[in-house]
Amino acid sequence: MSAGRDRAFLDTNVLVYAWSESNAPKGVKARSIIRELAGQNSAVVSMQVLQEFYSVLTTKMNCDKLLAKEAMLGFARIPLVQTDLALLQQAIDISILTRLSFWDALIVAAAEYAKCTTLYSEDMNARQIIRGIRIVNPFSDST
Question: Is there a domain that residue 1 lies in?
């Protein structure tokens, strides 16, 4: 992955809110972020994010599995970080050093691998900087 521009990593919750057809503020904000980043060709996701997205749609949102698959494949057009052994090792190190859950640490490791400067997530501590990546909660008034 190239580092020619500031890249931003999208956590699962951003994709879920963007996909929802609701005009609730979180859905509107998530779609706005994705449109802006897509226009700049600077969004990044990981295989983990796509897996979690599909799982949330089919379990928590009771979405039809084929529709969820189509939605997931739509987001798969965003540059994608694959999980491999090196990334898993980085995630373990990040988890140990920062006390993040392993799964959140894997998100950070993927963002670092993709040379992202920002990670959009409502699940991590906003304004925290981990390995040079600024965590932003796009749904909070304080970010």
Answer: no
